[in-house]
Every structure is written in structure tokens, then in C-alpha cells.
Amino acid sequence: MRADRPKQYLRLGSASLLERSVYSLLADVRVTRALVVVAADDTTAATLALPARCTILAGGGATRAATVRNGVRALLDMAGPDDWVLVHDAARPCLPAAELAALIDAAGGDENGGLLAAPIADTLKREEAGAGRVAGTVDRSGLWRALTPQFFRIDILARALERDGAPSFTDEAAAVEALGLRPRLVEGSASNIKVTTPGDLALAEAILRQQGRW
Prior knowledge:
Layout: E1 11-12, E2 15-16, H1 17-25, E3 34-38, E4 54-58, H2 64-76, E5 84-87, H3 97-107, E6 114-119, E7 124-127, E8 134-138, E9 144-153, H4 154-161, H5 172-177, E10 184-187, H6 198-210
Parallel strand pairs: 3-4, 6-10
Antiparallel strand pairs: 1-2, 5-9, 6-9, 7-8
């Protein structure tokens, strides 16, 4: 991001990326509380205007999976084994409320859990290793791009993240898949962007304005 602070604390109008992402996750009344997992030396999260239903945990790990695992461990002390947990990226501030509701509706009754995802629309190319040239075209049929939130019963997610090799997974669905489960794909939209580059901030602003959330 070429920024002077972690990207979750960059401003999007009157609020930070993190604040907007938390509020988008709490837009559904079925989400009773939020746990924000930050680095042990983080001093910024506590200064944000987060809702009372939000708790900050200084338990960030070396990887995404380790961070989520630490958060789930903390939640196990607050929740029952049949409770469900949504895992959402702090850099996805434009989550539409309708898509969050669709995920909870569709995956909440599925023991495999589920995730928001978008079918791949672009043609995919595989690179010849280190050559910067096309080695072949990848069949895109049946391919989806994983988004967040991802939604699982808390005991299943905890078991998946405690397994050997779990820290190598780049999303929670992959860890759950390793248990032999098949999470449900719930179609999300391109508006649920992950802010990754400086140009994404302008795109996120445009989306939030279009959603009436600016």
C-alpha cells in the first residue's frame, strides 16, 4: 500500500478500513459480537470507534491461519460448541448486507459451512516458470474466487485450524476441506473487494457511495 500505517487503519472517509469492515459484519442482527484480532504491539485498534459488541484481542500470529486460530481459541471460552463463527478480512469494507444474509441463510444449516465466492469470469493463463511467458490456458469452468466472510460451526473450525499444517492454509475453507468436508459456495459479488493497492481505496469509496454507506 506504500502507506505510513497498516492498511486496515487507512481512512475511507470518516472511518478506517477496519471500522467499516466491522460494521459491515455486524449489519446482520444474527451476528451477536465481533472479535478483532490484532498484533500484540498494536496500539491503534483501541482508539477506534468500534461498537460495544466488539472485543479487541492482541493475539495476531505469524500467518493468517495462526491469527484466526488464536481468535477461535479465545471465542471457545465465550461460545458453545454449536455456535457459528464468521471470519472476515479487515480490508473488505464493502461487504453487502444482502450477501452476508445470504451466506448465513445458505450455510448456517449446512454442517460443512460455507463461504462467499465469485465464479471466475476471466480467461486464466499459467506462466512458464520464471519466464514471464504463457505456458498454457487454464480451464476456468467450475473455478471460483474465494471471498470473505467464511462461515463455520466453531468446533469444526477450531478442529481444522489445530491440525498439523493448518498455518499454511490461505483461507479457512481450505483448512475445513482438509477435514474431508465440502463447504458450500454462496455467490458473492465483485463489490466485496479486498483493499490491496492504493488504487483500491478509490474503488472502495465509489462502491460505498453507490451502496449509500459513505
